[in-house]
Write a structure and sequence with these properties.
Rossmann fold; elongated; nine-stranded mixed β-sheet; 28% strand; 23 strands; alpha/beta; four-stranded mixed β-sheet; 3 domains; Ribosomal Protein S5, domain 2
């Protein structure tokens, strides 16, 4: 006969013990323990692949498309998410708006550890977040938050912010990194064990990374940064980790009088101030499922220093230096004796070799002080031999550009494209000079 043993669990907080206790050490409840006999010969801790039961991930959608897209189609039940960003960037505003929308169909509790309930109410009324099905609490003790969540069984809880929470039962000092890690672990177990989605805001350091131990990022399922764009009152929601979605998607919001409003077509903002000045080139890049069109600005000046300056913002500096070296090698233009400044409009960061041609054209345009043809988009890769190569997704870029009257594509001679506009094709960087004759 198999060996059997009994375990005891608190019926109030599910604290487990190997023996019966009169008082629960976790919730302090009296006579709350009941026994459960377990056959130790049956190992329930390891399973064969076919014995593991699965269910489709239930997505919690807010109806705010920019948020749902970045989340990977919506939040997942039992997911633990952290939203971080600079102070005053709008984290609390965004989370309150998300809580208000989701509470229309899913039970939601908003825990404010930074503001009083009166302050939260004033902000909620200003943002018109007055859904009667949204619940609020100003509790900051993480043990109390967990007990309330287990009692009321919400589908979503929002904690604003995790750094302002504390644990009276912890052996670590309040606000220490060790206690923060312990708090995060408890929230993670709450999310997984009770299938409650947990979203928390987090502070950011002066270096621009999430405050707290680095292991905090490994505990949570997803980390998102809310960032400000430098020209407009625009906020960019960017994923740096997402176990249930891609990290390539960007969400765009505009700060208005009634909070953050989603921007369905961000290219409209980037296109409105576009001017054909020397050193300016329009380039495209893919973020998730949509093409983004931005202006690449270059400034080339004869250097007055023994070591010419290279100031690059929004794009990989190595890529710019490489393109400048290729131009100098094959066109005999001494860019190494010039200061080079490169900036991506809109405060965005782009990556990938499809911007090689735009970098080369912007540098040449600034060097010769002659603008590129109006309403043109540069798309192409440049190899070390100076040849211009085709890129992927060119038709996606062309269709998006056509919406804004951008009908002239500057591309490789080998690029296959379906477009009703004009295409100026180049075989090598030598052909680029014809634009500046």
């Amino acid at each position: 006969m198999g060996k059997k043993s009994s375990t005891y669990a608190c019926t109030e907080c599910f604290y487990q013990s190997g023996k019966w206790l009169g008082k629960c050490p976790d919730c302090n409840g009296w006579n709350t323990f009941s026994s459960d006999t377990v056959d130790e010969t049956k190992d329930q801790l390891i399973f064969k692949i076919n014995d593991i039961t699965t269910k489709s991930a239930t997505r919690i959608q807010s109806g705010i498309k920019e948020w749902d897209r970045v989340m990977g189609g919506g939040l997942v039940a039992g997911e633990f998410v952290i939203i971080t960003g600079d102070p005053g960037i709008g984290k609390s505003t965004l989370l309150l708006q998300i809580a208000n929308k989701i509470s229309e169909n899913h039970k939601t509790i908003y825990f404010s550890s930074e503001e009083s309930l009166e302050q939260v109410k004033l902000r909620a009324l200003r943002l018109k977040c007055n859904n009667e099905s949204l619940f609020f609490s100003d509790q900051a003790d993480i043990d109390t938050i967990i007990k309330l969540a287990e009692k009321h069984k919400p589908e979503l809880i929002i904690i604003d912010s995790v750094q302002n929470c504390y644990m009276q039962s912890s052996d670590f000092s309040q606000a220490s990194q060790s206690q923060l890690k312990e708090i995060a672990f408890k929230l993670m177990r709450l999310a997984k064990d009770k299938s409650i989605t947990v979203i928390s805001s987090g502070h950011i350091t002066k270096e621009g990374v999430m405050a707290g131990p680095k292991t905090l990022e490994h505990i949570v399922d997803a980390v998102f940064y809310l960032q400000a764009e430098d020209r407009f009152q625009t906020r960019i929601l960017r994923a740096v980790k997402n176990r249930f979605g891609t990290i390539d998607e960007l969400g765009f919001f505009q700060m208005g009088e009634s909070g953050l409003e989603e921007i369905a077509n961000i290219n409209k903002y980037f296109m409105q101030d576009l001017n054909p000045n020397p050193g300016s080139a329009l380039v495209g890049f893919i973020e998730g499922t949509r093409p983004i069109l931005v202006e690449l600005q270059a400034l080339v000046l004869a250097s007055k220093y023994a070591m010419p300056q290279k100031v690059i913002s929004g794009i990989d500096q190595t890529q710019v230096v490489l393109i400048a070296a290729i131009l100098e090698k094959h066109l005999q233009i001494k860019l190494s004796l010039h200061d080079i400044f490169i900036k991506i409009s809109g405060g965005l960061k782009i990556k990938g070799s499809s911007s090689d041609l735009a970098i080369a054209l912007a540098l040449l345009s600034s060097y010769f002080q002659k603008p590129l043809p109006e309403k043109s988009l540069a798309l192409g890769e440049i190899n070390l031999a100076g040849q211009i190569k085709p890129i992927n997704y060119v038709n996606m870029y062309a269709n998006e550009a056509e919406k804004f009257g951008i009908v002239n594509l500057l591309i490789s001679s080998n690029q296959k494209i379906e477009t009703h506009g004009k295409a100026t094709k180049f075989k090598s960087i030598h052909d680029l000079l014809m634009l500046f004759e």
